[in-house]
Design goal:
homodimer, alpha+beta, BirA Bifunctional Protein, domain 2, Rossmann fold, nine-stranded mixed β-sheet, five-stranded mixed β-sheet, 15 helices, elongated
Chain lengths: 437, 437
């Protein structure tokens, strides 16, 4: 390295994160909570590479992300490769690949890292980790209820109370019914209008009204009817504006049944939201999101839905899929907002500081015995002063320390110091093990 | 999706793996063993993004991998980005970036996924996960001893006995002394010869001899002397061929001390190997590898060394680093060879199969109570026949099943079936919890 004169930067690549041990500790805490709550319902973990053939994302996904915001490149063998921007296409690919061998229903989860080329901002980075939870092979709304129940449990696990958030729910079937049957829009008009509805909360009422008017240019009376409908205050008002047909009845029943099913499980902060679309075009039924009501932080915490047609891109027959994704950056922000971030604790419970080099073998011997009892021990091998060694153990968050020198080697007794309380007790090895357990 | 006619392939990208739940289970088992053994010594986990600025690898690394086998591309903002091919440059970057705040010695580990564009073959894929264990800030050979002890513990943990493997050790200082001082080779000649030594085991003795002759073209007597030295049978023979100088003495003492230190810990399968180089140019002292002696599988299981000059590329002063990397593909192959692969067990301990739709709410109620006792439960919501539901639970590896119908709802008693032994016991909910704990 010595012949290298130019200094390299120590910065990470733009928009991604370094996880120093303190950050990694928080990330592990988030992952552990995720795993605990999904595994309670029998979900099993899967994974895949971040590298996927680019064609996997060229099937229409409806999200601008996929076409304009991917990390895509040609490999040295001229293959088009993409760093996965979402996990759903990979999940579908894996299920399609072993459809005949797998025992449905499947309950699968994964915590992949995902990549999007976009301007980094609060809550949105170029790389994030996302919990993906999916139940595959269940047609009935029991799947909706379970998936939303898990989303609810997770939100509570990160410290939010019922009043802090709401679960917004809609159904793509009712959206399609409204756009295509009630308002008789073409496929293209429907697409443009559904994208507009998706962004409704991000613009003023005036702006929204103008844009609706443009879409309904030829039929201004319909524009007014549509605005009245989309601005309904609640489920009853919304349904009141719709013609009573079989299709309308069925889709609305589904929404109602999910809400009632969740209520029976004690989940009451669920609200029908006729403007909820969720980005991806592959959704075919229920869509939902958990929304943070905190005035400082109003935004979706997680979201998902049903996408029963996804295997079509692989030429496979329909298998019902429903699931959601929850990102780690958003959760970390949430935990900061709600004061539930954990305090860093290293694996090591005890630091052993030899007072001088000749006592290292004895320190190692003691360390080894304590490790055999399942307790993590770090020995300081540096030639620092003993006081600095103790300070350093404290700096690294190790809770207890013993110094080992001539006296200790003779007596087999050690002053074990609690670095938080500053209390010191003199114990032999056996009692050190007992007290650390 | 319906308008998409062309079928997509369900294959993963070439040379990377899909982790179906059974594969993920094995990978988690490997990671858990890794974590347990390094955390016992007080190591803490860190991580970073797979995306790194390409310049991080342009500093000479000595490994052809880095220049010819990376996944490198330009992002949409025209930055040169590389998918990390190894973790060491990232570790060095992170340590350099916070050098003043960190409390040395550091014991850090990580399990990153690494990328290399190469022809996939047994034990070598385009993406693999690699345990990286490093101790930073310790100049003494105590660091060598601890690092090699951990490597030894891990190898044993995967099922190998002492006789199944050996730990090969060398020191770059003695290599440099031999090439530059004893044989007075130029920097370039030294570089070529050290690369040749690295590949010695991969060619015939004749071929090696010829290549050595080419390097020592002008001085054939030296070529013979060199061959005698490099072909030494053991440490004593090797040292006997060297002129007795201070430098020779010091480097050889270090190797001897490490071997003696490991012996004191009961680790006796350590062997000096004058041909061991390890690929990377950044090594400055001890290099070592764990080598599988199994005749079917002769190869390095893991390897590492000391690289005290690495922070130089960031313009930082020297900090001692020593560590090793161990890959998951190699470990999985090892466990297959030694018959130590674990059997798949899903999180769910119990499957509840409602006999018909009306009993789902009651099944959910029971499931919820059992989950609250910390036991994972999966409810089958499909409309399959009850026998198929039970079969499917078995297929997914869930060990116990209960069916819930009218009788069960009335009596509150359930026949819990062990799907392995086929035994059935009739228990109430409370006793189900007790028996599953």
């Amino acid at each position: 390295m010595t012949d290298k004169q130019r200094k390299l930067s120590t910065e990470a690549y733009k928009g991604v994160r370094d996880f120093y041990p303190e950050d990694m500790f928080i990330q592990k805490h988030i992952f552990d909570l995720w795993k605990k709550h999904v595994e309670a319902f029998g979900y099993v973990e899967y994974n895949a590479s971040v590298l996927e053939p680019s064609e996997l994302y060229k099937a229409k996904s409806g999200d601008e992300i996929v076409n304009e915001q991917t990390y895509s490149f040609k490999d040295r063998g001229d293959r088009d490769v993409t760093l996965r921007p979402e996990m759903t296409p990979t999940l579908a690919r894996m299920v399609a690949g072993r459809k005949r061998e797998l025992g449905f229903p499947l309950r699968w989860y994964s915590i992949p890292n995902l990549f999007r080329y976009e301007q980094p901002q609060r809550g949105r980075l170029r790389e994030h980790w996302q919990l993906n939870v999916d139940i595959i092979g269940v047609e009935s709304i029991q799947a909706e209820i379970e998936i939303i129940q898990i989303a609810y449990n997770l939100t509570k696990a990160f410290g939010l109370k019922d009043a802090d958030f709401e679960i917004r729910i809609n159904n793509r079937m009712i959206v399609n019914y409204v756009l295509k049957d009630v308002f008789a829009l073409s496929d293209e008009q429907s697409h443009v209008l559904s994208k507009l509805i998706d962004r409704k909360e991000k613009m003023s009422a005036e702006e929204f009204k103008d844009k609706v008017a443009t879409i309904f240019e030829a039929t201004p009376d319909k524009a007014q009817k549509f605005l009245t409908l989309i601005n309904s205050q609640n489920f009853e008002e919304y349904t009141g504006h719709l013609p009573q047909t079989k299709e309308e009845h069925e889709s609305l029943c589904l929404i109602k049944e999910v809400i009632v099913g969740l209520e029976a499980l004690g989940i009451r902060n669920v609200r029908f939201d006729q403007t909820l679309m969720r980005g991806f075009d592959y959704y075919t039924g229920t869509v939902f999101e958990v929304f943070d009501n905190n005035p400082k932080n109003r935004r979706a915490i997680l979201g998902g839905g049903r996408y029963d047609e996804i295997l079509g891109i692989f030429g496979e027959e329909k298998v019902p899929f429903i699931g959601f994704g929850a990102g780690d950056v958003v959760v970390r922000d949430l935990m900061e907002t709600y004061g539930t971030l954990p305090t860093f604790k290293p694996a090591a419970r005890l630091a052993i500081c030899p007072t001088d080099l000749p006592f290292i073998p004895y320190a190692n011997e003691i360390a080894q015995k304590i490790r055999q009892a399942g307790i993590s021990v770090a020995v300081d091998y540096t030639q620092k002063k003993i006081g600095d060694k103790v300070k350093n153990a404290d700096k690294n968050g190790i809770p207890y320390v013993i110094c080992v020198g001539e006296e200790e080697q003779k007596s087999g007794k050690f002053k074990i110091k609690n670095l938080k309380t500053r209390e010191e007790v003199s114990l032999n090895e056996e009692n050190i093990i007992k007290s650390l357990r």
